[in-house]
Amino acid sequence: MIRILVLTGLLFVLLDKIRDRETSSGKKDSGKVTAEGHPYKRHAIMSVKIFFWSVAAPCSALGAWATVWSNHPLLAMEGMLSLVTYLVLFYLTVESIQTRKQQRTLLWVIVGTAVFLSIIGIFKRFDVISFFWWDYSSELGRSNGMVSVSGTYGNRNHMAGFLDMAIPMVLGMILFRSRPPGKRLGMITLVLFLLITQTLTLSRGGWGATTGALVFMVVVLLFKKNFYHKPLLVSIVVAVVVVGCVVMASTPVVNRLITLTQQDAEDNLTARITCWRSTCNLIKDHPFTGTGPGTFARVFPEYLEPGLYGLPLFAHNDYLQFAADTGVLFFPLMLWLLFLFFRTGFRKIKSRSRQTMGISLGAMAAVTAILIHSYSDFNLHVPANTVLFTVIMGIMASGWREA
User: Fold this and answer.
1) What is the pLDDT of residues 190-225, one digit of tens each?
2) Is there a domain that residue 12 lies in?
3) What is the DSSP-derived secondary structure letter of residue 54?
4) Which residues, in sequence order, are bridge partners of residue 401?
5) Range of the structural domain that residue 105 is part of
6) 99 pairs with which residues across the strands?
């Protein structure tokens, strides 16, 4: 479905470009200024070139390299197709988000989706409404206890991963954009609602990731000279701490923290370490070529060490799994892409536009959160969360103008 939607979006963008070219040609013939001469058009063309040489080319080259050397070519080509899909989605975001109005619209789509997931999750958690089409207990082989909030996901950690990225985006807009007291209070209430939902996911990785994102935002803002809403920042931090202490003191949350070291073969630190060690052994055997994009589940059983309950389909560490699929060259590529992202973010946070500053800070904090969460889970192998991650990266790379 994602591929179909992305392909449809690409067709619309290409048709729109063809129409613009024909319009520009007509204006040129009539002696008017061409669209290509407009500074925003020139900026868009430059953005496409930078995207191709800085992002698409190296990512595609690494994926193609791993695919060529893979012992499972069909699976690798399937994984390569997924990579291309996300690259096209990134391009579509860069091309489509060209005005501040489009920027705000996309932000509210992200926030609205997070609220929708939270409401569905809370309804399921407290048995207010039963959504049988979002009950994955039979497929996962687990009882339908509904003790945590998972929304429409089959795993609470992936619900938490979506909230990791959505919460900072809302906070960025609250901290920078001037709003009437009523609207600002409403947005703060919205953030607290999402934070409570995040806590109720009982995802330890989600808790750590969201905390890391909030710390990142606070540190950046405290060092920002022209940030005049520091009292508001302090108020939000105090509110978050108070709400967090109240919710974290609940029995389910305390029990969840205890399970970190409990000998539950399915969900404890020892099991994760065993999985990571097995993945490292896989990487050692395929250091420079990997096993091919998307082939991890096929190859991993050969390297699985004793001590795990069942057969994991993922490494529970996105960094290790990407390295297993594409080789250790993934790490310098990842550092390069993050360098481009955060360099752009810290430049845009100096903008005179408060909206640009707010969304740039929120995007950087959102990516920081998912990077933290990816250390202990596989959110970037969950299509819905990968789509959100790709869109947030694209928001940062897009060129915005007044509208």
Assistant:
1) 988 999 999 899 898 999 999 999 889 988 888 877
2) no
3) I
4) 99
5) 41-263+314-397
6) 401
Looking from the CA of 325 toward its CB, the CA atoms found within 13 Å total 28
User: Residue 224: its pLDDT value, please?
Assistant: 76
Quick check: is 73 in a domain?
yes
Tell me the one-letter amino acid at 230.
K
Between the alpha carbon of residue 370 and those of residues 65, 74, 293, 373, the distances in Å are 26, 29, 21, 5
Contact criterion met (CB below 8 Å) for 86 and 304: no
How many domains does the chain divide into? 1
Burial (CB < 10 A; 0-12, 13-18, 19+), residue 139, is exposed
Sequence letter at residue 387 = V
Residue 56 maps to a domain = yes
Copy the structure tokens of residue 45: 């063309």
Mean pLDDT of 290-300: 95
Given phi > 0 = left and psi -120 to 50 = alpha, else beta, which region is 144? beta
Q: What is the DSSP-derived secondary structure letter of residue 75?
A: H
CA distances from 182 to 178, 189, 195, 233 (A): 12, 11, 20, 17
For residue range 341-358, list pLDDT tens digits in order: 999 999 999 888 888 889
Average pLDDT over every residue of 241-268: 55
Q: Residue 378 CB: number of other CB atoms within 10 A?
A: 24
Q: Name the band, by pLDDT with cuts 50, 70 and 90, for residue 96.
A: confident
Question: What is the predicted pLDDT for the residue at 33?
Answer: 44
The C-alpha atoms of residue 47 and residue 37 are separated, in whole angstroms, by 15
Helices (DSSP H) in 30-127: which residue ranges?
Answer: 39-51, 57-68, 73-96, 100-125
14 found inside a domain: no
SS3 labels along 148-197: CCCCCCCCHHHHHHHHHHHHHHHHHHHHHCCCCHHHHHHHHHHHHHHHHH
Distance CA 378, CA 131 (A): 25
**Dist CA 129 CA 119 (whole Å):** 10
Per-residue pLDDT, 35: 41
Tokens of residue 8, six digits: 């449809």
Residue 1 structure tokens: 């479905």
| Residue 22: alpha-carbon gap to chain centroid | 37
| CA–CA separation, 107 and 99 (whole Å) | 12
> Which residues are CB-neighbours of 304 under 8 A, at least 6 positions away?
278, 311, 312
Task: Spell out the SS3 assignment of 80-98.
Answer: HHHHHHHHHHHHHHHHHCC
